[in-house]
Every structure is written in structure tokens, then in C-alpha cells.
């Protein structure tokens, strides 16, 4: 159990009612992110406050009305999972950096430079994010933040989201090695076998097209690829 002096506040607000608990910062974060840990070791004090800094407890009637129980540990679980958890400076820095890298990886896969048709490197995308000062939410899903980040960095980085349609003709003997690569970098829309070849039509994010074709080309020079069209 962490000492009160080293604890941080986890807070859940419903209307005008505020419910706070004092928690171990690392164990509470681990529970919020992964659901691991027990409340006895997470809570500094097994008490629900309306104002933890002032030491003012919440009325039991309010706790029971909102959470349906007076069990402190069950209430604490809900507060940590659904509420706001104060982060230490180092925790916020690490979480934000991790989330930023996830967002950058998604954008790099899906985008290209409309001037050259070449994919943007993760380093270039990350530099643009830093330049415009995009705020990354460490708790919000990376996918949900991608569009907002793209809108922000377009002011300093020409960027276009495209999906390419590619027709592939693969000799039967190379099908096994190629199939895993295709499904990793593209989505198969149509496929069929004709004599000694496997044919498929795939859609691939523009940023992954080059990787897909390069990896297939390394397997065999006999693999044929034709880019049909792209879409925003």
C-alpha cells in the first residue's frame, strides 16, 4: 500500500457529484490500462472522498446511488476504470510517446506524399507532429486520433490518404510464400485459380504498396503486378 504522500487522485464525476480516491500511481495505471492488480494494494486509504485534498468524505447515500454498492473496492475499480487518473510527469510522457508512435505508424502505412507518390517516413510524420504541437491523448485509442492529427500536420506536410488496387498473378509454386505477405500488407477483394497461376485483386494502403511489391519481387521475378486505380 502506497503512502498518502506519494498517492495520486483518481476521480469520477457524475453531474455535480465528485468521487475521489487516493491511489498508488503505477499500480492504478496498470489496472486502468490492463485490468491487473487488486484494490487493497492500489488504494492508499480505503475511503471514497468528495474532495481528497481536504479529506472530505463522500456521503454513503451518494456512493450507493451512483455505484449501486458501498463496497469501497468495487467502487474504486469503477472510479479507476471509468474516471480520470492523475498521472505523474514521467507516466504521462511515456504514455504519450507510446501513443504517438502508434499514430505515426498508422499514418505511415496509409499515406503518401501527393507530390511524389512516395510514402512518408515515420520520422517525417513525427517531425510534423512536433512542429505543429499536436496534442496526443495518452488514453484515447490511436485510431480515433489519426484523422485529427492528419488535419493538423497537413499545414506543414503534404499528405494524401490513398488505397491502391493491385492485380496480382502468382505462379502456383510461389502461392504459399506469397499469401502471408499479401494478407499482411493488403486486403484480398477477389481471388481465383487459373491453370498454373493464382490471381487476386487486392487493395493496399498507399504507404504499404511499395513494401508489398518489393517483398513479392524478392520471392520471384515471375510474379506480375498491375496497379489499377487508387482512391482517397
Question: How would you describe this protein?
Answer:
This protein is of the alpha+beta class and 232 residues long. The chain folds into three domains: 4-85, Hypothetical 12.0 Kda Protein In Nam8-gar1 Intergenic Region, Chain: A (2-Layer Sandwich); 89-160, Arc Repressor Mutant, subunit A; 162-231, Alpha-Beta Plaits. It contains nine helices and eleven strands. The protein has helices spanning 25-34, 39-42, 60-67, 72-82, 89-110, 122-132, 142-153, 175-185, 206-219, and strands spanning 8-14, 17-23, 49-51, 56-57, 84-85, 111-112, 160-161, 163-171, 187-194, 197-205, 224-231. The strands form four sheets. A four-stranded antiparallel sheet has the order 9-10-8-11. A three-stranded antiparallel sheet has the order 2-1-5. A two-stranded antiparallel ribbon has the order 3-4. A hairpin with a 2-residue loop joins strand 9 and strand 10. The protein is elongated, with a radius of gyration of 25 Å. The mean pLDDT is 92.
According to CATH, the fold-level topology of the largest domain is Hypothetical 12.0 Kda Protein In Nam8-gar1 Intergenic Region, Chain: A
Average pLDDT number: 92
Per the principal axes of the C-alpha atoms, what is the gross shape?
elongated
CATH class of the largest domain: Alpha Beta
Helix content: 40-55%
CATH superfamily of the largest domain: Ribosome maturation protein SBDS, N-terminal domain
How many E strands? 11
What oligomerization state is this entry in? Answer: single chain
Beta content comes to: 25-35%
Number of alpha- plus pi-helical segments = 9
Provide the succession of SSEs.
EEHHEEHHEHEHHEEHEEHE
Tell me the domain tally. Answer: 3
Distance between the termini: 53 Å
Radius of gyration: 25 Å
Instruction: For the largest sheet, list the strands in their spatial order.
Output: 9-10-8-11
CATH architecture tag of the largest domain: 2-Layer Sandwich
The biggest beta sheet is recorded as: 4 strands, antiparallel
Structural class designation: alpha+beta
What are the low-pLDDT stretches, counting only 5+ consecutive residues below 50? none
